[in-house]
Amino acid sequence: MPPPRTRGTALRQRLAELRGPDVPAKVLDARALAALAANPGCKRRAILDGAGVNKAVLADALGSPSAFGQSQFAFMRGNAFEARVKADGGAELLRLVHEKLDPGAEPPTRAQVPRLDAIGPEGRAARTALALREASEAAVWTLLDHPMLALDVAGSPAFLEPDAVVVHPDGSWTVVEIKSFPMLDGSADPAKVGAAARQSAVYVLALEEVAAKLDPAPRVRHRILLVCPKDFSNLPTASAVDVRKQRAVTGRQLARLTRIEDIADTLPEGTCFAPDRPSAELTAAVESVPAAYAPECLAACELAFHCRDHSRTSGAVTTLGRSLRAELGDLTTVDEVLAAAHGESGDPDDPAVAALRRAAELRAEALAHHPEEPQGRQGILDADPEGAVCH
Fold this sequence. Notes:
Elements: H1 7-19, H2 30-38, H3 43-50, H4 55-61, H5 72-85, H6 87-101, H7 120-138, E1 142-145, E2 149-153, E3 156-160, E4 164-167, E5 173-178, H8 190-212, E6 223-229, E7 236-242, H9 244-256, H10 260-265, H11 279-287, H12 304-314, H13 322-327, H14 334-341, H15 351-369, H16 379-382
Parallel strand pairs: 5-6
Antiparallel strand pairs: 1-4, 2-3, 4-5, 6-7
Helix pairs in contact: 2-8, 2-9, 8-9, 14-15
């Protein structure tokens, strides 16, 4: 007799059916998880990532290929720099951790580098948890090279692989993030540092889940070590980055995600995102899951071009940006916004409607002095279709 299906096995079977019976699952990494947490209202991304769908391949099949991703050159350069940082048993990496984060501890002259080999992501995660416990009890410098961490995301496990985790002599744990962008005169591009901090915050959350299962629970440090090339050389330098804010925001947003099984239960029977399906069927499957497109998605999601086209076709105000969408309240389409601005609909006591009508009045006064400017209801959006309607 086959073993009875539990809720967990039933969910995994359902996700495999959504992905396609012969399609391998794409591992959800910390970068994708941070992007998912930044847009918790997007059920489309939640179910696709939870099912392990390769969104880049899916976007190609939908006819909206993605320009999102890392170039092969940048990938090879990053791997070469990481190998240099971890050479000689991670001696230089541990020196930087000691210098930037724990100068009061003894120098890492006798560090341990345990093997983390195991079968499958579950096995590697279990082996990592064991190595972390043993290193904390041994009270010596320990470098875990590409450990595997598990994090529950909307009811589905995500397996994450940080560049490194260092265990200090006091038993505390530090996340190490290695990036190939330069650190010039001790500082790097703030946008890239912010992205690395959000990614590292996901690792910190996963480490905290591991630590919570130990007694006593080791301390997971909220200052991570960001390692980058120094100036224009290939020599490593580092900076301590406090990720407490990013960790709190990411944890709160992940907690708000609709559970994967709840989204799957709302999909029509037979829904499948396999890229070999007919184009019309695949489009219908994708459109059966609500999306929450915003211009910020262009830098974070492979399906952004597809979602943008459909969002523009439907006239959704989300194409104008999340901040403006929040200010417009119950007005969800561009037609509703224009109608409210011109007094054709909307509650005049609504602050958003009142602001729109005042903006329309000011615009009309300005155009009265410059009649060559574009007239009509649509003119308010002609100059910048993804800009602000009013302020």
